[in-house]
């Protein structure tokens, strides 16, 4: 079925083919076959690479229907077509799913600007933010502004490998205005094992997904130091409070109940127990902070990317430029540990600091 033969049907393209990108393509591909409103074919952009066998990853995906590097052992669906060319991937599409690691999205958008259909809707599955000279920018707004498109977000307690095996999980779809568009996205993703709830709070949903990766780094430090469950629970509680306070300072419109959706407390729990950020941060602490994250990431994740370390830096830059350090001691400490300024054990000592301002309160005039 060619897109030009059925102009009224929605045509989906997935931009990104890592661990979560491949699972997203699998979920979507099952639904484009199920629902008549979508074209069957799902084109997935592959940032191509040569495998140890000498073959191109995109060719192997098309021959085997499996992303052998980022999601081995899982069939994506025969209607998923891997495409190493970004422009042919999006050429006919009017539903674009962005799912690259966050550090690459700016470059991808620059290449796409002016090359899209006029009726494009976008959704971001990317957990991260960008800090530019004029301040922080959520990834959905980078996509929105650079491409002139509306952009929803989909976040949640979604460890990709578990969803690939069709184990039940939930996700939160954040939208700003158009409920009909949000419902179309929900229909594209939802399956009996992947429950999607749409809420009108795009910034809140995206900030939850972004900031929980920073807290997961702290949870990994606690695990690496073998501090036990009480310390880990304390770090997660303090982290959730800082997530909420930071989100509300950036966007006062962020809704309180968003933190109780899958994108909030549930993703925090999933990531602090089962995620890659936790795992690599644990190794960092076991090595006493002596082996840099970049080295551990390359060794342990085999091409998959951490988001929490760079997000911790981006959050730190926001705290610094706004003089917010006093209100976010955990976020501040996490970044300082990541860059080696203080040891991993500082993760539970930051609260013991005595600030000059607290001493002043006791002085008698
Ligand atoms: N993996 C998960 O469990 C999971 C779940 C939910 C959300 N997410 C989020 O989804 C986003 C994507 O994560 P992922 O797991 O699909 O990716 P990943 O961690 O598997 O990253 C690897 C991908 O990055 C690509 N890449 C490498 N260099 C590139 C470049 N210069 N330009 C463009 N692409 C390049 C690789 O080709 C590969 O597709 C992240 O923001 C992540 O936080 C991940
Ligand atoms: O593996 P992580 O730490 O990147 O986390 C994966 C997902 O974001 C969990 O929802």
TrEMBL record:
<protein>
    <recommendedName>
        <fullName>Glycerol-3-phosphate dehydrogenase [NAD(+)]</fullName>
        <ecNumber>1.1.1.8</ecNumber>
    </recommendedName>
</protein>
<feature type="active site" description="Proton acceptor">
    <location>
        <position position="212"/>
    </location>
</feature>
<dbReference type="InterPro" id="IPR013328">
    <property type="entry name" value="6PGD_dom2"/>
</dbReference>
<dbReference type="InterPro" id="IPR006168">
    <property type="entry name" value="G3P_DH_NAD-dep"/>
</dbReference>
<feature type="binding site">
    <location>
        <position position="276"/>
    </location>
    <ligand>
        <name>NAD(+)</name>
    </ligand>
</feature>
<keyword id="KW-0520">NAD</keyword>
<dbReference type="InterPro" id="IPR008927">
    <property type="entry name" value="6-PGluconate_DH-like_C_sf"/>
</dbReference>
<dbReference type="InterPro" id="IPR006109">
    <property type="entry name" value="G3P_DH_NAD-dep_C"/>
</dbReference>
<feature type="binding site">
    <location>
        <position position="47"/>
    </location>
    <ligand>
        <name>NAD(+)</name>
    </ligand>
</feature>
<dbReference type="GO" id="GO:0051287">
    <property type="term" value="F:NAD binding"/>
</dbReference>
<comment type="similarity">
    <text>Belongs to the NAD-dependent glycerol-3-phosphate dehydrogenase family.</text>
</comment>
<feature type="binding site">
    <location>
        <position position="305"/>
    </location>
    <ligand>
        <name>NAD(+)</name>
    </ligand>
</feature>
<dbReference type="GO" id="GO:0046168">
    <property type="term" value="P:glycerol-3-phosphate catabolic process"/>
</dbReference>
<feature type="binding site">
    <location>
        <begin position="276"/>
        <end position="277"/>
    </location>
    <ligand>
        <name>substrate</name>
    </ligand>
</feature>
<dbReference type="InterPro" id="IPR017751">
    <property type="entry name" value="G3P_DH_NAD-dep_euk"/>
</dbReference>
<dbReference type="GO" id="GO:0005829">
    <property type="term" value="C:cytosol"/>
</dbReference>
<feature type="binding site">
    <location>
        <position position="104"/>
    </location>
    <ligand>
        <name>NAD(+)</name>
    </ligand>
</feature>
<dbReference type="InterPro" id="IPR036291">
    <property type="entry name" value="NAD(P)-bd_dom_sf"/>
</dbReference>
<dbReference type="InterPro" id="IPR011128">
    <property type="entry name" value="G3P_DH_NAD-dep_N"/>
</dbReference>
<dbReference type="Pfam" id="PF07479">
    <property type="entry name" value="NAD_Gly3P_dh_C"/>
</dbReference>
<dbReference type="GO" id="GO:0141152">
    <property type="term" value="F:glycerol-3-phosphate dehydrogenase (NAD+) activity"/>
</dbReference>
<feature type="binding site">
    <location>
        <position position="307"/>
    </location>
    <ligand>
        <name>NAD(+)</name>
    </ligand>
</feature>
<keyword id="KW-0560">Oxidoreductase</keyword>
<feature type="domain" description="Glycerol-3-phosphate dehydrogenase NAD-dependent C-terminal">
    <location>
        <begin position="201"/>
        <end position="348"/>
    </location>
</feature>
<dbReference type="GO" id="GO:0042803">
    <property type="term" value="F:protein homodimerization activity"/>
</dbReference>
<feature type="binding site">
    <location>
        <position position="127"/>
    </location>
    <ligand>
        <name>substrate</name>
    </ligand>
</feature>
<dbReference type="Pfam" id="PF01210">
    <property type="entry name" value="NAD_Gly3P_dh_N"/>
</dbReference>
<feature type="domain" description="Glycerol-3-phosphate dehydrogenase NAD-dependent N-terminal">
    <location>
        <begin position="11"/>
        <end position="179"/>
    </location>
</feature>
<feature type="binding site">
    <location>
        <position position="160"/>
    </location>
    <ligand>
        <name>NAD(+)</name>
    </ligand>
</feature>
<feature type="binding site">
    <location>
        <begin position="16"/>
        <end position="21"/>
    </location>
    <ligand>
        <name>NAD(+)</name>
    </ligand>
</feature>
<dbReference type="GO" id="GO:0005975">
    <property type="term" value="P:carbohydrate metabolic process"/>
</dbReference>
């Amino acid at each position: 079925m060619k897109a030009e033969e059925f102009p009224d049907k929605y045509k989906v393209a997935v931009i990104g083919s890592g661990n979560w990108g491949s699972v997203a393509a699998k979920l979507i591909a099952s639904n484009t076959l199920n629902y008549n409103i979508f074209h069957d074919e799902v084109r997935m952009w592959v940032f191509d690479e040569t495998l140890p066998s000498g073959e191109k990853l995109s060719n192997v995906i098309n021959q085997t229907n499996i992303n052998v590097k980022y999601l081995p052992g899982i069939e994506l669906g025969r209607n998923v077509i891997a495409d190493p060319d970004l422009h042919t991937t999006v050429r006919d599409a009017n539903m674009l799913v962005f799912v690259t690691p966050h550090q690459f999205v700016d470059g991808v958008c620059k290449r796409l600007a002016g090359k899209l259909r006029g009726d494009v809707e976008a959704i971001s599955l990317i957990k991260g933010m960008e800090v530019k000279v004029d301040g922080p920018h959520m990834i959905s707004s980078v996509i929105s502004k650079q491409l002139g498109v509306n952009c929803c977000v989909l976040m949640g307690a979604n460890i990709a490998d578990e969803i690939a095996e069709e184990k039940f999980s939930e996700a939160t779809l954040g939208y700003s205005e158009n409920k009909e568009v949000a419902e179309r996205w929900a229909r594209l993703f939802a399956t009996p094992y992947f429950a999607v709830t749409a809420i009108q709070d795009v910034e809140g949903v995206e900030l939850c997904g972004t900031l929980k990766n920073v807290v997961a780094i702290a949870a990994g430090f606690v695990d690496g130091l073998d501090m036990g469950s009480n310390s880990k629970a304390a770090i997660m509680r303090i982290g959730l409070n800082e997530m909420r306070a930071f989100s509300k300072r950036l966007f006062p419109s962020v809704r309180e109940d968003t933190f109780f959706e899958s994108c909030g407390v549930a993703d925090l729990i999933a990531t602090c127990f089962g995620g890659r950020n936790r795992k690599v941060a644990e190794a960092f602490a076991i090595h006493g902070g002596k082996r840099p994250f970049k080295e551990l990431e390359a060794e342990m994740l085999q091409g998959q990317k951490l988001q929490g370390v760079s997000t911790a830096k981006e959050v730190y830059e926001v705290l610094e430029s706004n003089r917010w350090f006093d209100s976010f001691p955990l976020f501040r400490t996490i970044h300082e540990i990541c860059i080696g300024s203080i040891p991993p054990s500082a993760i539970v000592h930051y609260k013991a600091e005595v600030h000059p301002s607290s001493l002043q309160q006791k002085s008698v005039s």
